[in-house]
Amino acid sequence: MRSPIQTRFEDLPEEISIFPLSGALLLPWGRLPLNIFEPRYLNMTLDALKTGRIFGMVQPDYDKTPKDRIPADRMTPESEPAVYGVGCAGRIASFEETDDGRLLILLKGLARFRIVKELEGRNGYRRVRANYDDFEDDLEPPPKFELNREHLMTYLRPYLEMQSISINLDVLKGLTDGSLITSMCMICPFDPREKQALLEAETMSERAAALVKLLQMGVFDAGKPDAPKQ
Q1: If DSSP codes are grouped into helix, strand and coil, which group holds residue 147?
Q2: pTM of the model as a whole
Q3: 83 inside domain
Q4: What Cα–Cα distance (Å) separates residue 102 from each residue in 39, 42, 46, 95, 122?
Q5: First-last CA distance in the chain
Q6: Which residue, of 11, 67, 127, 171, has the greatest Cβ tally within 10 A?
Q7: 30 domain-assigned
Q8: Has residue 4 got a pLDDT over 70?
Q9: How far is 42 from 35, CA to CA, in rounded Å?
Q10: What pLDDT sits at residue 69?
Q11: What pLDDT does 218 receive?
């Protein structure tokens, strides 16, 4: 039975604000904590809270961004990056105001979308027309699939150690296969192109295989002494 607070396909907004944040991956059924402090994204979050609590996370596509639009230090509102054509809509599940004017939010992944067209911005943030037709199944719980956890953990353990990411591996044992893959795809610090590949994987099995491959490359490229033999 569908929860009364679960977002329906027809509730997904055709026009959606987007938050281009390099390396911050949101996947359907995942939960992404965000620290909102930049004025335009505070505006975006506050506007979303008034109108359905939904906005989209997208990866910047620096390969398609003219080099003269990328400052040496960082992007500015006057030099927006190009973005990949597929993002993920999320619903603000909870939020907290801080004394110094930030918003701490938890974004629940709903469904992926294709960007049809970029629209005129609003209150400093970007907006697009979105199409969800290819991803309607994202709103349903992930189907069961075959996951070789032992093979995954062979590469996940050294990768997390190499990245100085502290996770209680015993906690991971209690996660479903789908939740485990979703969580690790979101947590691991892959580059934007790699994050995008994980987002666009057609099935959970394909996403799991891509994750293992990225973990393998990360461990072996670093020349970790205790890297497992292939």
Answers
A1: coil
A2: 0.87
A3: yes
A4: 9, 8, 11, 10, 20
A5: 44
A6: 127
A7: yes
A8: no
A9: 10
A10: 47
A11: 92
Same domain, 158 and 203: yes
Q: What is the CA radius of gyration of the chain?
A: 18
**Strand 54-58 to strand 15-20: parallel, antiparallel, or no bridges (unpaired)?**
parallel
Q: Does some domain include residue 230?
A: no
Q: In CATH, what number is assigned to the domain containing residue 43?
A: 2.30.130.40
Q: Quote the domain boundaries for residue 194.
A: 149-221
Contacts of 111 (CB under 8 A, 6+ apart): 9, 12, 28, 88, 89, 132, 135, 136, 138, 139
Q: Is the pLDDT of residue 92 over 80?
A: yes
Domain count along the chain: 2
Q: Is 121 found in the same domain as 21?
A: yes
Domain boundary among 83, 109, 138: 138
Residue type at 129 in one-letter notation: R
**What is the C-alpha to C-alpha distance for residues 211 and 202, in angstroms, rounded to an integer?**
13
Higher pLDDT, 154 or 5: 154
Instruction: Please indicate, yes or no, whether residues 156 and 121 belong to a single structural domain of this protein.
Output: no
**Closest to 188 (Cα-Cα) out of 209, 150, 168, 161:** 161
Q: Distance of CA 133 to CAs 9, 24, 211, Å?
A: 9, 24, 25
